[in-house]
Amino acid sequence: MSRSSPAPPDTHKTTPPRSQSLPTGKTGVAPEDLDPETAGMIYLAFDYGEKRIGIAVGDSVTRTARGLATVARGDWVAITRLVSAWRPRALIVGLPLDEEGAEQSITAAARRFAAELGERLHLPVHLIDERYSSRAADDWLREARSSGRMTRRVRKGDRDIQAARVILQQWLDVHG
Fold first, then answer.
1. For residue range 143-175, what is the model confidence (pLDDT) as tens digits?
2. Which of 25, 35, 103, 105 could connect to 69 by a Cys-Cys bridge, CB 3.0–4.6 Å?
3. Hey, where are the domains in the chain?
4. What burial letters (b/e) apply to 24-58, b meaning 16+ CB within 10 Å?
5. Fold held by 42-175
6. How many CA atoms lie within 13 A of 154 on its CB side?
7. Contact 67/162 with Cβ under 8 angstroms?
């Protein structure tokens, strides 16, 4: 009696299976959720912070951005996994400026992060003025809670994720 071997893995699949450990935040968004026709038009945005980095994903066909995940600052393994899974065309990094548009102490760190992203991942990196993105994220979270769209308590990383979404949405609105 011969035993049949299990079927070989699907070698045509271009994205990792959901079971692979990817930091996907609480949004439930995964690479396979997007239409394959838009695969070359995916963008990831980063809201660089002192402790965490918020990440959002969007595409130029629908011109919409969605919050994706937060990672600890300096967690290049998680960032590399997300970029490998989503295969974006470019990366967008929010540039933290003060209300007058002047650079602050964190601006230089965000610039270094953007430069390192480009060097490590070999992708184009675009910087965008992120003034008021955290305020817009706070407004969105407050409205989502009051309307019932968000029933759980707001977590620390939620603001970072939504700020990244705002940054990417602004970029898509102009460059999409």
1. 765 676 656 665 676 778 888 999 999 999 898
2. 25
3. 42-175
4. bbebebbbeebeeeebebbbbbbbbbeebbbbbbb
5. Nucleotidyltransferase; domain 5 (3.30.420)
6. 18
7. yes
